[in-house]
């Protein structure tokens, strides 16, 4: 018998998303990863809103298989005023999601920032547009727009000199536009953060190093993992994106060693991973198939995308089967994990994946801009189709 397939899902940003649930269903996906984006960070999710959102998804013929995400309030990461109330709200939200039958909650513990890119419309040779990260451009933002004290210590002489040339080559209007774009990307959605606002957010981490942030994560998991397990919810931490320090902030979810430490903090089966090949793949020293094989029993959800790394530190979103990550080996490791779970009789024998990010191609250029950069419809459909064919082919080569 072929190995069981992972469930196919797509990211949906809620009723305001420019990609509708009806369109997602037409991609062949059977589930969505979504969140209640309208609920402010740190507040309890209303029961009626959870129920109505689930009913809306199911009316479109889909399943709400993972929450992406229940954001962790900054007070929890810094253990400052209000953190106890924020943890209590998180616990209650987990109970309500469990009661509603939503089985997985994805979250991250990145301080201040969410994912970071410097180019939203990088044009590839075939005319497609991709997201790109350029360390020189990011250094220009850090050194000259933000003017972060001590930033020069984080960059080599060559990078600082290249950043200065890049910044000085922009007009004032271009500098302002690049600054605004970078600020808007930090939380993944536009929250109108200002430079002064970002400086204030960074100041809260002045005395927080990686060891301290890791301890704050341990305390958070000690409080929420038992609640999640009781509620029938699995927690899936998302890796840092990019998986290295930025703006002087610590990163603690970037390597296999980091992931192992987190899993050891709480042995509860509720404490697990969102396995993101794009985030982990931005580091050449991360063995993506090996991580999937060795930590597979604790993977609760997967984001499959590919990045192309370059020697100068630049990386950009590649096609899902291209780039620097051996996607076939990754998918084989994930399918073997599901196969082992089925043989062991685990109730969570199947987990879901979604194609993460995608190129802007074809009719994507004639559609409204994606609700979030990197999430056009047709480009993600291409990625889902490629991954579907890959996993079905590999599944038929594997047998119980």
Q: Care to describe what's here?
A:
α4 packs parallel to α9, α5 packs across α6 and α12 (288-294) packs parallel to α13 (327-344). 42% of the residues lie in helices and 14% in strands. Strands 1-2-3-4-7-8-9-12 form an eight-stranded parallel beta barrel, surrounded by four helices. A four-stranded antiparallel β-sheet has the order 5-6-11-10. It folds into two domains: 7-115 and 208-397, TIM Barrel (Alpha-Beta Barrel); 119-203, no CATH class. It starts with 6 loop residues before the first strand and ends with a helix. The protein has helices at 21-26, 47-59, 74-78, 83-99, 135-145, 157-168, 172-185, 195-203, 210-231, 256-265, 277-281, 288-294, 327-344, 377-397, and strands spanning 7-11, 31-34, 63-68, 104-107, 119-123, 129-133, 234-237, 271-276, 299-304, 307-309, 315-317, 352-355. The model has no long low-confidence stretch (mean pLDDT 95). The chain is globular. α2 links the parallel β2 and β3.
By DSSP (H or I, 4+ residues per run), the number of helices equals 14
Tally of structural domains? 2
Q: What CATH architecture of the largest domain would you give?
A: Alpha-Beta Barrel
Q: What's the order of the H and E elements?
A: EHEHEHHEEEHHHHHEHEHHEEEHEH
Large-scale geometry: globular
CATH class category of the largest domain: Alpha Beta
Strand content: 5-15%
Spatial gap, N to C terminus: 6 Å
CATH topology of the largest domain, anyone? Answer: TIM Barrel
Number of β-strand runs:
12
CATH superfamily of the largest domain: Divalent-metal-dependent TIM barrel enzymes
The averaged pLDDT comes out at 95
- pLDDT < 50 runs, ≥5 residues: none
Instruction: Tell me the major beta sheet.
Output: 8 strands, parallel, barrel
């Amino acid at each position: 018998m072929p190995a069981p397939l992972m469930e196919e899902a797509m990211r949906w940003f809620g009723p305001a998303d420019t990609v509708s649930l009806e369109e997602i269903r037409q991609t062949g996906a059977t589930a969505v990863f979504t969140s209640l984006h309208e609920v402010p960070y740190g507040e309890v999710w209303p029961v009626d809103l959870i129920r109505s959102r689930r009913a809306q998804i199911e009316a479109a013929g889909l399943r709400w298989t993972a929450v992406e995400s229940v954001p962790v309030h900054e007070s929890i990461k810094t253990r400052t005023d209000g953190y106890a109330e924020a943890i209590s709200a998180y616990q209650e939200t987990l109970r309500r999601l469990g009661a509603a039958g939503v089985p997985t909650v994805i979250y991250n513990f990145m301080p201040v920032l969410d994912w970071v890119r410097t180019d939203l419309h990088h044009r590839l040779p075939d005319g497609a547009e991709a997201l790109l990260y350029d360390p020189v451009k990011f250094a220009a933002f850090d050194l000259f727009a933000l003017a972060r004290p001590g930033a020069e210590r984080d960059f080599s002489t060559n990078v600082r000199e290249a950043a200065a040339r890049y910044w000085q080559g922009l007009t004032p209007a271009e500098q302002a536009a690049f600054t605004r774009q970078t600020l808007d990307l930090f939380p993944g959605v536009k929250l109108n953060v200002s430079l002064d606002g970002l400086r204030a957010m960074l100041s809260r981490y002045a005395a927080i190093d990686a060891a301290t942030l890791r301890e704050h994560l341990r305390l958070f998991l000690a409080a929420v993992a038992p609640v999640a397990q009781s509620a029938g919810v699995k927690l899936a931490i998302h890796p840092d994106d990019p998986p290295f320090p930025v703006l002087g902030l610590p990163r603690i979810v970037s390597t296999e060693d980091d992931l192992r430490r987190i899993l050891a903090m709480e042995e509860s089966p509720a404490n697990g991973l969102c396995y993101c090949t794009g985030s982990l793949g931005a580091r050449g020293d991360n063995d993506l198939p090996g991580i999937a094989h060795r930590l597979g029993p604790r993977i609760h959800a997967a984001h499959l995308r590919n990045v192309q790394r370059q020697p100068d530190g630049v990386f950009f979103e590649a096609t899902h089967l291209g780039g620097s990550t051996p996607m076939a080996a990754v998918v084989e490791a994930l399918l073997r994990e599901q196969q082992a779970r089925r043989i062991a009789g685990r109730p969570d024998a199947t987990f879901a994946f979604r194609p993460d990010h995608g190129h802007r191609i074809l009719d994507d250029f004639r559609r409204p801009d994606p609700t979030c950069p990197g999430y056009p419809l047709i480009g993600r459909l291409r990625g889902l189709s490629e991954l579907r064919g890959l996993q079905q082919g590999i599944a038929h080569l594997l047998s119980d």
